[in-house]
Amino acid sequence: MSELAVQLSGVTKSYGAKRALDALTLEIPRGQVVGILGPNGAGKSTLFRILTGLTRPDEGTVRIFGEAPGWRTNRLVAYLPDRARWYADHTAEQALRWAETFLPGFDPAAARRLAEFMKLDLRMRAGDMSRGQEARLMLLLCLARRVPLLILDEPFTGIDAPSRARIIESLVTHIGEDGPTVLISTHELHEAEPLFDHAVFLVDGRVALAGSAEELRRKHGSMNEIMVSLLR
Amino acid sequence: MEERRAGTLTFRLDLSQPLYEQILQQMRQAIAKGEIGLGEKIPSVREMAQSLRVNPNTVSHAYQELERDGLTETRRGQGTFITSSPEKVQRFREELARHMAREFVAGMRAYGFTWNDIARFLQEAQGRHVHE
Amino acid sequence: MRTVDTLPEHRIPFWALVRHDFKRRRGGFLRTYRAWVLAYLAAVCVIFIVLATYVARIGGFDPRPVWYATFGLPFMCFGLGIGWTVNEWKNGTAGWWLTLPAPRTLLVASKFTAVLLRTLFIYAMVFLGITVFGLYTMAVGGHLTVSSASDFLGMGIQWYSLLLAITPLPCAFGVLYATLAQSRMKPVIPLAWMAFGLLWWLLSARRLVHIHPDDPAWATGVHWTWPMLWPLVGTWILSYVLVRLAAIVLERHLAM
């Protein structure tokens, strides 16, 4: 049994002439909350799509708990896709039933608690929701799953500050000792960074800087400051 | 700098410094100043992490350190409590004071100040402190 | 903690997925403008009745060739196959759909089945409409008898069974076409059209699909013949191959 949740070595992925990932090598131990950070186009979403089998790398090897990513490993992964929407005709209630039918490890009781906590009306249709409400719905579908790996691609986009704080609080209840491995990419660093055990900064498809969040703070300051200095 | 409340305590977290140290230090101060009473229950790691919106591992790290200081004790199945022994807190305060005093004196000496200088500056500082 | 070892194997229930895929995804419009939709439906019904009455009154109207108006239905289900698959991308739900822990063949098979079921539903509606139209014109024209009615319906059933038999192919082709359009294999699409054209040409050259309004055979109906069986079985095998190809495209060649 692999002690690593995620392992990539020499992973390269190009879209036409653009290299999204450039010989990326990365190891993420189990149970860690890892911020995958970097500017737009640094390869964060591509990395997540490779981990969920949506796309295949041109070169290199990828392992999720020791297995090659694909539909079989996806039962272990709760994935919030980037710029995702929900089925417009579904009410939140129907979305929960959908998740219960199709997503392994989905805990309906936890989902209901989360919906209440996030102040989401279950009778509302996704098509009638604001972006923030829809984002909360999709995030709770991921958070209500008892699986060993959560991959959240920009979970706070379009969510207002008070809801962000609540979402972060509910994230805190999931992580920590014996919790799942969590990969989060976000631009809302100020709120999200206290959650990280580790941070990985990607620039141009490569790891520009990585380490324990506390160590990085001691050496370089906040994640936000690191981002700014990396982009200079 | 960001203020976050956890129960009766207020924490000021600076994201450009290690969070564990800040939580530890501010808990120590709260205990030393008596902001949390002896024998009082403190929030669980998870509750504290939720209120501060930080990683529970960070809080747990700080709590372990507090226990090593002798300032808290974990009772099986009941949670974490501030020590009920005033001697332990007193010992910690004195230890802390001694440590800070030594640091201060060593710092002054490094700049070539004599003991008389140091005493004079301390008196001056105290005067200013009183006026404030 | 739940680990890889303790998390049970999970099977996606196929028919639940089909039911999900089968649901009309764009119900919002119809619901918002319900009154308008009903008004248009009523208007269509009125025009339908007036037209039927008119052609029946002129006399000598034979409703049997009306069945051939359904010639376009297989083309419609090609469009449905494309639309329902592409919608996952258009509606931003492709990420959810494609990360379901199910083999891609199952995902594609479910889409295919849903499209096929929807097509059957539409076929049935059209069948009903034409039946009512035919019987009504016969009744108004004064030549509705048991034998003329059964002749009319018999021809419809013959023609319909032929249509139904070839329907899986355009459904499967539609689904494959949509997945190709979302993949790095997009340049293959013109090739797919050429293959389709070639197939069509083969079928018509062998007079298996033969439409000629002047042909006296068409007035009296299309008949099943034994030589038709093999090309039909061929279209079913081809449909299966296309569904598998779509799964392979989703598995390996997505442009995501």
Write up what this structure looks like.
The complex is a heterotrimer of chains A (232), B (132) and C (256). With 232 residues, chain A is α/β, with parallel strands linked by helices. Chain A has one domain (4-231): P-loop containing nucleotide triphosphate hydrolases (Rossmann fold), CATH 3.40.50. Chain A is built from eight helices and nine strands. Chain A has helices spanning 44-51, 92-102, 108-117, 131-143, 161-174, 189-192, 213-220, 223-231, and strands at 4-15, 18-29, 33-37, 59-64, 77-80, 149-153, 181-185, 198-203, 206-212. In chain A, the strands form two sheets. Chain A has a six-stranded mixed sheet, with helices on both faces. Chain A is globular, with a radius of gyration of 17 Å. Chain B has two domains: 2-82, Arc Repressor Mutant, subunit A (Orthogonal Bundle); 86-131. In chain B, helix 1 packs across helix 3 (56-69) and helix 2 (45-52) crosses helix 3 (56-69). Chain B has five helices and five strands, in the order ββαβααββαα. With 132 residues, chain B is of the alpha+beta class. Chain C is mostly helical. Chain C has one domain (14-252). Chain C is built from eleven helices and no strands. Chains in contact: A-B, A-C. The A-C interface holds A 1, 15, 31, 49, 52-56, 65-67, 71-72, 74-77, 79, 81-89, 98, 101-105, 127, 146-148, 178-180 and C 1-5, 7-10, 12-13, 16-17, 20, 23-28, 91-96, 98-104, 252, 254-256. Chain A: InterPro entries: AAA+_ATPase (IPR003593), ABC_transporter-like_ATP-bd (IPR003439), P-loop_NTPase (IPR027417). Chain A: Keywords: ATP-binding, Nucleotide-binding.
Annotate the secondary structure layout.
The complex is a heterotrimer of chains A (232), B (132) and C (256).
Chain A: E1 4-15, E2 18-29, E3 33-37, H1 44-51, E4 59-64, E5 77-80, H2 92-102, H3 108-117, H4 131-143, E6 149-153, H5 161-174, E7 181-185, H6 189-192, E8 198-203, E9 206-212, H7 213-220, H8 223-231
Parallel strand pairs in A: 3-7, 3-8, 5-6, 6-7
Antiparallel strand pairs in A: 1-2, 1-4, 8-9
Chain B: E1 2-6, E2 9-13, H1 19-32, E3 41-42, H2 45-52, H3 56-69, E4 72-75, E5 79-82, H4 86-110, H5 115-131
Antiparallel strand pairs in B: 1-2, 3-5, 4-5
Helix pairs in contact in B: 1-3, 2-3
Chain C: H1 14-22, H2 27-32, H3 34-58, H4 73-90, H5 94-98, H6 104-141, H7 146-166, H8 168-181, H9 189-205, H10 216-220, H11 229-252
Helix pairs in contact in C: 1-6, 3-6, 4-6, 4-8, 6-7, 6-8, 6-11, 8-11
